[in-house]
Description:
The structure holds two protein chains of two kinds. Chain A is of the alpha/beta class. Chain A folds into two domains: about 30-130 and about 265-335, Bordetella uptake gene, domain 1 (D-Maltodextrin-Binding Protein, domain 2), CATH 3.40.190; about 135-260, D-Maltodextrin-Binding Protein, domain 2. Helices cover about 45% and strands about 15% of the residues of chain A. Chain A has 14 helices and eleven strands. Chain A has helices spanning about 1-20, 25-30, 50-60, 80-90, 105-110, 145-150, 165-180, 190-200, 210-220, 250-260, 275-290, 290-300, 310-320, 325-335, and strands at about 35-40, 70-75, 95-100, 125-130, 135-140, 155-160, 185, 205-210, 220-225, 265-270, 310. In chain A, the strands form two sheets. Chain A has a six-stranded mixed β-sheet with strand order 2-1-3-10-4-11, sandwiched between helices. In chain A, strands 7-6-8-5-9 form a five-stranded mixed β-sheet. In chain A, helix 7 links the parallel strand 6 (about 155-160) and strand 7 (about 185). In chain A, helix 7 (about 165-180) runs antiparallel to helix 10. The longest helix of chain A has 19 residues, at about 1-20. Chain B contains 21 helices and two strands. Chain B is an all-alpha fold. Chain B is about 75% helix and about 0% strand. The termini of chain B are far apart. Chain B has helices at about 1-15, 15-35, 40-45, 55-80, 90-100, 105-130, 135-140, 140-160, 165-180, 205-225, 240-250, 255-270, 275-285, 295, 305-330, 335-345, 360-390, 395-410, 415-435, 440-465, 470-500, and strands spanning about 185, 190-195. The chains are: A alpha/beta, B mainly alpha. At the A-B interface, helix 3, helix 4, strand 7 and helix 8 of A face helix 3, helix 16 and helix 20 of B.
Amino acid sequence: MELKRYRLLLWISFLSLSMLWVAPELQAAPYYQGKRITFVVGFAPGGGYDRMTRMIAKYLPKHIPGKPTIIIENMPGGSSMIAANYVYSVAKPDGLTIGNINRGLQIAQVMKISEMKFDLRKFAWIGSTASDANAFCIRADLPYKTFGDLRNAKREIFMSSGGPMTSGAQFTTLIKEYTKLNIQLITYTNMADALLAVERKEVDGNGSTYSSLAPLIQRGVLRPLLRGRAFEPEIKHLPVDEDMTTDPVGKKVMAMRSATDVVGRPYVAPPGTSPEALSILRKAFAQVAKDPQLQAEAKKNLMPVEYLSAEECLKSVNYLLGQPEDIVREFKKYITF
Amino acid sequence: MFDAFIQGLMINLQFKPFIFMLIGSAIGFWVGILPGLGGGATLALMMSFIYTMTPQEAMPFLLGMYSVVATTGDITSVLFGIPGEATTTATIVDGYPMAKKGEAGRALGAVLMSSLIGAIFGAALLALSIPIVRPLVLAFGSPEMFMLTLLGLTCISTLSGRGKRGLLQGLLGGGFGFICSMIGQDSQAGVLRFTFGQLYLWGGLSTIPVMVGLFAIPEIVNLAVSGTAIAGDVPLGKLGKGVRQGIKDTFQNFWLVVRCSLIGSFFGILPGVGGGVSQWVAYAHATQSAKTDEERAGFGKGDVRGVLGPGASNNSKEGGALIPTIAFGVPGGPGMAILLGAFFVMGLVPGPEMLTKHLALTYSMVWTIVIANIIAVTVCLLFIDRIAKLTTIRGNLMIPFLLFLCFIGAFSSNNHYGDLIVLMVFGVIGCILMRYDWPRPPFILGFVLGRFAEINLFAATLRYKAHWLYRPKVMIILLITVAFALAPYILKKRRLSNEE
């Protein structure tokens, strides 16, 4: 009897202890197990934002406990403002909706665009999966080897851009205004047409995202002369646009514009998303960015992936939005949304 | 070069690439038929599947789908008056009236055969132009592109109605289309125009809801009012015979088909212009083949030539659009932009390498266009009897299905309720135009060309000031434009003086 009781006690203790140890998967599983995450992409299928999101969505589930299904919903319009408004005000804050929005919305908030129904600072930030460096490039067949050569140019320098509100157009406009280069910016239908204008020598160069210009740089058609604050390793050695001006206001304005490059591919969740869900998503994004399969695919796609944490993103956003009124006024003179 | 040409064919005839091409063609068949589900969006969805494929498998898979879309898009345009794709709208103008007259088989036979010839022509042009493709694309700068837009706009006069006020109606319609193209952010300063505080309108009006609203909704309303089937009470006759007649019509108007294929290829080569314009220029050219006023008056009421022209140009433009895409990495159209992404995934860099190191793969793309279209047209012709019989189904049974297609097609543009509002607004406009016998194609031409003309005029003027007007190619295109605009009047005068 004594032995029987002792054995019973032993079994009860063993069972109790084993219940305390729960498999790691089970600890997080209850939240995303059997669930579906929707990525709301603020652009049409096939573009850069969409392709990046689809690439990430392919590998993300294995980094989220419970391995949820992921679907992509394209919601173009208003430079992704429609998608951002939706994620902010309509989507439930249940960790099942993630918005991929235009990094240029930071500028929209600086400009206080009336159609904007959200505050970027109040989103539940997950992070950014790339920074988008800008490079100011001139045709390699022209005699300008450095930015100094351009300052001494005796004629107008014609630069193409893929649209008036693109980061490239903003980047080039600020260089024109604050370095006093004799630049004429010519806008084309889209980036592809802007680059074709370079190839047919209708324009002298293009200042845009390095990822767009890389094929022409690699082929020797364009020569990069200047960059913004954000950089890729290949253009790290170039002078920074802010250093080309002595105007302190100009430096600040250029730094503001560069801040949007740093947060190149923002991913946000609705305000009020639970801290647990947010933590899982942030961790998953940080891990997926290091995933060797994703990195290999990103390399193939010429779309580098590098995770920037939510804190870093918010730091950049707060920097931009915390500028004094006089700097914002100066910024608004040249930058449109 | 010939070796690469044959190698390209051998690539496509290998087992796996051939199977993938068949699968792609099957997908393209349904994508083309379903309005709104564009080839471009489908390409984006198919991209997920190509990561484990070799380039020799991925390209036939993607291009097999994309090159067939315009072919089967014409089917919906003919049978229901709903454009299967934005680039198949011009086919409705004469194709749908033919279906209403009980000649659906003939229209389908004509459009399918002309599509096939157009596809082969476009592919052949791509193959032959490889040695000169780079200087060809680089030859057209912003001034030349603007002049080509003007050339396209002169088609308004040809597409206008007949009678004393026909040209005025056409010009007013084209002008209204131009104004509608201005909606959204302007291309130079980003100023918002006619957006009325609506985010949806920032990017301008989407083409699909506008075209579907303008052409399909009035026809559905007409169907509801008439209370009959699409083919009315006209006996359908032997459909097989109609199809054979349609194929015969294609070869009887062979040189028209070739000329329209040339138009499609040419506009396909010009980045950004694409099928939205080429179909209307081809249609306008087809109407110019009318020898008498009575013949000319038959266009818009079911003249088979009105189906042959757009059918040929829609498919030939795909081969043309591949030229700047492969040679420069500059998409010849929206779908090509996504195909470009596929190039990068495959490790292919568009540019000189595609014309040298990967020439065999480039030629395999040529063969894909040809083979995929041959297969698609053959399959369509086998089932055409059954397909054409849809026009005999009672109207009140078809209308819910057609409306469903219209609304789904429009909504898929932006996944926004604004697309449905645009569809209905332009549906009302289309009904009014139809009721008062105003032509609708001039509006579409102004709408499609407006923004393109604006951007190129600005670019040309900023870059060259007024000197762009004196460029030799600009002067040549201007002369062609004037000739194109005056040709109907000169020919008419000559005819009248001959009759006297």
